[in-house]
Structures are given as structure tokens and as C-alpha cells.
């Protein structure tokens, strides 16, 4: 599965970097999200779904590896 | 203090719990018009709160007009009371200083302050007021270090903060302008000689692109969002644990649950009962109601965090320190999400860990029914919290 972040929406809350540091970091320069991995295995799906639902800026989306994204993968809140 | 008016339903609590009226209103509809007409709407439903806070295009955070129709004074640098591009500009000035990594670098400073205050608390003797000797000084001293505020200013700021928080007191307005004045002085002093704290860093890194008024406003926003919120969360968080001995025992037995416990306590006590009001810029249909342009909406994050909600497993009213950290709203949602979230989380973890380690026999020094709560303050909290050990 692919992980996408929207840096224009990101508010630098750090919620992703705090709970899922394997996948997310924050830039030293602007405090906004930096992806550490653009792809993840299916076993990471529950954690990534939680990260997406926790994001206060709704800046994280999950997409099937081969596609451009679909609503079903979007959020889980 | 005698109260000559009824406290709004979203400000009332049954010690730590939502009052039955709030639960009933939440069960009936996602939002309602409170008696008295201001705010025009109170929203209690978790999903509708999220939708409104995420919709900064249609809901402004600029303060609504005063009851007499007067426009509120402009407040340069205020992170909470600005919209759109101006808010983004301010937030981007400070966001890099509040990352998880930056806060981790401050961990030794926070641990030192917590240790010092644990000493003071212990020396105060049993029973000691946890708020006076620990919770308030810890959050105040950490904030002072973070901003670069002289320690001597703290007691004065806390006195002004108390007046400001006292709702309808006649001393509220003078205290507010004195409070603002304090930060203006700080900004001017830091302009001449920029220090290591947030104020000095803003001036060093952004020079004339940020005015003294903005530096003052930013520091005031950070202080407002930090000192009382953290102190009250420590106080009510400890109270919540002491009122749930099974949860306290579990946390003592499994200290690795502390990060989860911090999230759970943030959610459970939600000291900011309602986030700062939003004003609809256009007519908005939401939650089966029509919010008209110009109407003021209060989002009750306390209700949203604690009332039963269709999307969860029906355990929102229960304290569960082992709960998988979810998407609670205690730190807000959307573009105004708490700038100091990483600061708050780390501070709470260090303070609670220190307290539990130092006092294995920590318990309430009074009956719960004796406690007095700050119902009118912007942050709900307990006035004094006598503890024994």
C-alpha cells in the first residue's frame, strides 16, 4: 500500500511522527510532515489507518500500491 | 462565590463526568441552540465537531463581536484568533520550534523542573496541595524556560491569569491588558538582546519580518495555550487516576503504558471544554441543522470526547489507560490544532511518571465532595488538590 501526505494541509502537529516514527518524521526546517517510507506492507495497515484518522489536518492518505487512491482507503474514522 | 446565573450545560461537570443533561442533548441531536442565545449553537457530536474544526473556509476563528456589538480589539500575533493566510504565516514562524524532536531536546530541562517541584511538594508536608506545589509551578516554569520569560514574571502572570479566568469579574479587563502588556515588554527586551527562548529565536531568525507586537502575541498565545491547560490536565489527570484505583494500579504495574495513559487522560479530562468559538461565514447545513452566516458556534470537545458516539465501541465514558490512542479532540482539530501538542504530551509524561515513582502511596487528602472546581475558567480544573502519600 502507498502512503501519501499533503504538506499544504499539514499543520505540523507531530501526531504521526510521535505514534508512527517508522513512517513519519517532521522537517527541521518547517516542522511539517516528511515521509520516511512511501510504501508499506499490509501488516502496517491498522497502524497507518490510525495515523491517518488521528491527523488533525487530514493530511495523510493511504492508496493501493498500484493505483491513484480510492475512497475506501482514505480514512477509517 | 455565589452564582447569580445558571452555568451553561457544556461548562457543568459531575466531578469528572458529563452531566446527564449534556448526555441527553447529545443523544437527541448533534448540535443544539442553548438558552440565552449566545453562542447560537453548541455542538456535541464528535463527527460534526471534526467537520466544523476542519472547515476553516466556512468557519472563522476571528472573535465574535462583544455582546454590545463592539468589535473586539485587534490582537496581533494571536494564533487562535486569526484565519487563513495570516494564520498560516504566523503558525509557520513557530511550528519548527514545536516539533516532537525539538521538544525531546527540552526533556532534560523538563525533568529537572519536575524533580525540583517533587522535592518542594514532599517538603510541604502531608497533606499538600498538588496544584500549588506541583502542577501549576511545573507548567509555569517549563513555559518560562521555553519562551525565555524571566522567572520573576511568573507569579505576576499567574495572578493576572487568575483574574482573567474569573469569568465575569470586573478585574477581568484590566488584568487582560496588563497581561498583554507583560508580553509586549518581553518582546521589546528580547529585541534589544535576543535570548535562547522562543521570543529570542523568533527575533533572531525572522528579524524585522516579525514585529514586536507579533512576537508578544505569539508568546502570549503559547503561554495561554500552555500554562493553565497543562497544569489543569496534570491536576485532573491525577484526580482521575486516584478516583480509579484499578487504573492507577495497572499503570503502576505496567509503566510502559504511560504514553497511552497520557492520551487517555487528555481525552478523559478534556480541560478545554469548548474550543474558541467559530463564526459561520456563510450558511452551512450540518448535522441536520442550518447554521446561518454570522452565527457563533461553540464546539464542545469535552462532550465529543466523552459522550457515547456511534462510531466507537460505546466506552467513551470509561477511563482506560491501556486504550489504543485514538483520535480524541482534546488538543483540537484542523488548522488550529494545538501547536504545543508535543510539549504537552512530553510534559504530562514526565510529570506523571515522576509523581508516581516518588510517591508509591499517593492518595487523595480529602473527600471528592470537598473539592472545588474552576467551572468558569477557559480551562476546567480543580482549585486545590490535597494529596497524601
Write the layout of secondary structure elements.
The complex is a heterodimer of chains A (77) and B (389).
Chain A lengths: L1 E4 L9 H5 L4 E3 L6 E3 L9 H10 L5 E4 L14
Antiparallel strand pairs in A: 1-4, 2-3
Chain B lengths: L12 E2 L2 E2 L1 H9 L2 E2 L8 E3 L2 H9 L4 E2 L23 H11 L5 H6 L1 H18 L3 E2 H18 L5 H12 L7 H21 L5 H9 L5 H32 L1 H9 L4 H12 L8 E3 L3 E3 L2 E3 L4 E4 L1 H6 L34 H18 L4 E2 L8 E2 L6 E2 L3 E3 L1
Parallel strand pairs in B: 4-10
Antiparallel strand pairs in B: 1-2, 3-4, 5-7, 6-14, 7-10, 8-9, 11-14, 12-13
Task: Walk me through this protein's architecture.
The complex is a heterodimer of chains A (77) and B (389). Chain A has 77 residues and is α+β, with helices and mostly antiparallel strands. Chain A has one domain: 2-Layer Sandwich (Alpha-Beta Plaits), CATH 3.30.70.20. Helices cover 19% and strands 18% of the residues of chain A. In chain A, a hairpin with a 6-residue loop joins strand 2 and strand 3 (33-35). Chain A is globular, with a radius of gyration of 11 Å. With 389 residues, chain B is of the alpha+beta class. Chain B has a domain at 9-122 and 231-383: Cytochrome P450 (Cytochrome p450). In chain B, 49% of the residues lie in helices and 9% in strands. A five-stranded mixed sheet of chain B has the order 3-4-10-7-5. Chain B has a three-stranded antiparallel sheet with strand order 6-14-11. A two-stranded antiparallel sheet of chain B has the order 1-2. The A-B interface holds A 11-15, 17-19, 26-32, 50, 53-54, 56-58, 77 and B 47, 50, 54, 91-92, 95-101, 311, 324-327, 331-335, 337-339, 341-342, 345.
